[in-house]
Amino acid sequence: MNQWGEAPDEARLPPETVLSQMEMAVIVCDRFSNVIYGNTFARQLFGFGGDDIMGHSILSLGIAEEDHEQATELAKHVLKGGVWEGTFCNMRADGTTVYTRAHAVPLRHPSGAVDGVVIFAREALRSNQREQERYGLMERIGERLAGSLELESTLRRVADTLVPQFADHCFIDLYSGDRLYRRVSRHAADWEPPPGTWAEVGEPVSYPPGHFSAKAMERRDAVLVEDMIQHRFAAPTESSKRLGVEMGITSVISAPLLVRGELLGVMSLALSNLTKRPDPHYDGFDRDLLGAIASRVALAVDNALLFEEERDTALAFQRHLLPGDRPPPLDGLQIAWRYEPARPIESHGHGIQTQVGGDWYDVIPLSAGRVGLVIGDVEGRGARAAAVMGQLRAALRAFAQDDKPPADILRKLDEWVRTMTRPERIRSGWNSDDLVRPPLVSCTYFVYDAWSRVLEFANAGHDPPLLVVDGEVRELEFESEGGMLGLRAPGMGGEILFNEETTELKPGSTLVLYTDGLIDRRPKDDGDYYTREESREMVRAAVAKAASGGVEAVANAAYDAVPGDIDDDVAIVVIRTAGDELAVEERTFTAEPIMVSEARRMAADTFAGWGMLDEQAELACLLVSEVVTNVVLHAAATPAPRREMVVPVPAGTPGRGGEPLGAPPPVQFNTDFGAALDGDPFGGDFDEDDWSLGADLGRREPQTKEFRLRLRRGADTVWVEVFDADMRLPRIRSAGETDEGGRGLYLVDQLATRWGARPTSDGKAVWFELPLAP
Predict the structure, then answer these.
(1) Which segments constitute the PAS domain (predicted)?
(2) To bridge 187 with a disulfide, which of 101, 165, 191, 578 should be the other Cys (CB 3.0-4.6 Å)?
(3) CB of 570 within 8 A of CB of 553?
(4) How many helices and strands (H and E) does the chain possess?
(5) Separation CA 17–CA 222 (nearest Å)
């Protein structure tokens, strides 16, 4: 006789027979998470056949990538003797998605040791334990909604979670103003409604009175239509109604999206003949579940809308601090630029941010067609970095108008950055006043002359640009990297040196300037990151491949060179020099009154050769006469230096060491040039090389004065420059009614488009520009 709990011999069945009859998936894994057994129901549930997954990792069950970490946690927990329960998203072999509720327990050896893992699984929401599965789906929805603050991503994740697991069709409509627009239209098996039937994404939606979606928004509560055959509703259009009948819509739930008492829109789910389900109808339980899901979705949508509004405001603020979308037309240069903000930080330990940053660039028109170019990056990100960037751009533009060498401009900018500190109270364990250090800024400032093709530049800790010459790509060599702006805080000793460097660009050369966001922290497929050098090589290869195309193509190729989302904003500026020589005429004259007419004659001949209209040429020649006359008059009226006699010491007078001094030197004069210029309307310093003091005290020999006239022609502008050796920079005088002079520069100021003066290595240059009529 058999004891209690013992089956009779004739009733004993092998375990495989029992397990194959179970309406639940049973998966057995060894200690290394490899599948060693799966029953018949498991093959149906997970969509694999035969022994396809035997001996393979548990991940071969089609567990979605986002759940890999959860699967690893399951194995670790159960192998320690614990019990685990949770929900997985599984991708079947046919491409469909199924959500499974899993219960895992240890597989124990008779000795008590844990030899593996046994997993019991069933389809979520289709079991007798619907209450537990409800929490599983809500948990899944919560995880999906917490993963993004971007509206489109949030809505897409919701639809992907509900279709096809809980619905064949998912629609989400949101208000924009007082109109309702479709934002999501997701269907099982990748089916798409024919055009002109159901509203497509982006189209307005208008539900007629009595429609279940209209009722849900009106009642502010979920509405269930358990059997669509028994209830007829007015449809938005006849074509949408016919499609619903053709699709065999069986059951529908609509739930309003409410947050803080405000109606954002409506979410609707429907079952149809697209998929085969044991029960193609929703019930009251499903209605309550969707109502709870809609509450979470509404909160997530509201957060995403607020975040996108904040992000759009911040990015608009930043973009308005940068140059416009299109570079200005410049003679001898083709320019393209591209700025891309980083995506919101979500998984790098910084919290979610709007990602405005401090990358900046600019193109600054200078005197006589020369161009200032800058690329830079403010350390850090956020509103402060963007604000510092805007101030830097404005300051550099102001400093650049002095037309000083790039190294001098960076020195002034560094001094300005060092003043950007202020005492701030930092709240920590102790309240104290601390001095916030100045921002650190890397940048390179270039000045390019398209007529001479000379590029002058100075660097402040920025990455060197790429230089493309005859299809060969290399980095523009910096003799000195220079220190970053703001590196030396107030009170620190030492000096940051910015060296002046010069190179000549060949016709058709291309420069690619970029910020470090282009080459920093790009993720690989294996979860690692590209090194900066690997990223540089990919950018070089992409630029070389696109070098034969236009500057826009080069900029786009550089941006797309390194795969993966960027962690920092990126600025790219591409500059290409012209292949043709630009028109220029130049001649040197002695600084004599008679040469004024010669200079005007040269200008008239040049303008005529360039095809200028008579009125334009006459105005240009008038202004040439005024500027040249000004240079000649002040060259001839150079004030005499004041001389002081130095009394010689008699020979034999004892020195400091007691030795007698030698023969007396000849009588000398000390020249006080500054005093001689007192009252000079132009101000400035006198050039001592302008005079030779001979041994004869009563004689002085002036050097021969010269000036140089240079004329440049661009596509729609003419520039005139007059160079001389006088260091004094001119300024407009206020001439009285009876004064005979003092109006020359006033005429230039009134009639020229722009004018100015800049110091040169051996004097100054006075310049003006005039437009060419079309």
Answers:
(1) 18-82
(2) 191
(3) no
(4) 16, 32
(5) 45
